[in-house]
Amino acid sequence: MARIVSLVPSITELLCELGLAEQVVGRTGFCVHPRDAVRRIPKVGGTKSVNLEKVRALQPTHVIVNIDENEKPTAEAIARFVPHLVVTHPLAPLDNLALYRQMGELFGAQAKAAALCAEFLRAHERAAAVRWPQRSVLYLIWKKPWMTVSRDTYISRTLALFGMQTYPQTAGVRYPTLEAIADLEVDLVLLPTEPYPFRSRDVTGVATLTQKPVRLIDGEMTSWYGSRAIRGLGYLLQFVSG
């Protein structure tokens, strides 16, 4: 039986959804879903502050990492003592299908993975069937400094499915820093609840700076792939319709 350490919160949730919770022997402190299942799983640090000795002590057969969420030197160090380093990097909603199948095939949960694929496709088809009005949106992931997402990201491509094209149109890095957010040519500013924990009190300040409409949005529903992405598509369907 596999002994899995997951350093990716959304994939920890996916593994549990696939019925593999008993094989997950380690997680990060940000792996918080599903709450009842992860409560018993030891923590090995954060996504970018992994305690390698704790990972080693758990004697995993597999460690799952993500190119965006985990540091490359950490992954390289883990690869030196773990038999299987599983590297993930979904970049668009439909990449969830390959992710489900990959986890199902690795850990003997093919039937449940296939069921998730079918469920995801139904949700995706509902979203893709609508001709959404096109809007330019600024999706802020941090402040001090202000940071956003490029179009070469899972978040941006998920929002684009609903007609929300992220600013800027082009960028040299995947998570650009903005010197200022005033006078930008956007229709809407989105403040997600993660990674920076924007709250309702931030809306007025950002609206004053940008002179644009500002809305809070659930960051898990826009940035988490895996099984939560199915709920995310339903959430966004309601969000853009509201």
Strand content: 15-25%
Low-pLDDT runs of 5+ residues are none
Order of strands across the widest beta sheet? Answer: 2-1-5-6
Instruction: Supply the helix-strand structural class.
Output: alpha/beta
If helices are DSSP runs of H or I spanning 4 or more residues, what is the number of helices?
Answer: 10
The helix/strand series, from N terminus to C terminus, equals EHEHEEHEHEHHEEHEEEHEHH
- Binned, the helix content reads 25-40%
Mean pLDDT: 97
Shape: globular
What integer value in Å does the Rg equal? 19 Å
Number of E strands:
12
Distance between the termini: 46 Å
Major β-sheet profile: 4 strands, parallel
Short note summarizing the structure:
This protein has 242 residues and is an alpha/beta fold. The protein has helices at 9-17, 35-38, 52-57, 72-79, 95-107, 110-128, 154-160, 200-210, 219-223, 228-241, and strands at 4-6, 24-27, 45-46, 49-50, 62-66, 84-88, 135-139, 146-147, 164-166, 177-178, 188-192, 214-217. The chain has 10 helices and 12 strands.
Structure report:
With 242 residues, the protein is α/β, with parallel strands linked by helices. The chain has ten helices and twelve strands. The protein has helices at residues 9-17, 35-38, 52-57, 72-79, 95-107, 110-128, 154-160, 200-210, 219-223, 228-241; strands spanning 4-6, 24-27, 45-46, 49-50, 62-66, 84-88, 135-139, 146-147, 164-166, 177-178, 188-192, 214-217. Strand 1, helix 1 (9-17) and strand 2 (24-27) form a beta-alpha-beta unit. Helix 5 runs antiparallel to helix 6 (110-128) and helix 6 runs parallel beside helix 10 (228-241). The longest helix has 19 residues, at 110-128. The model has no long low-confidence stretch (mean pLDDT 97).
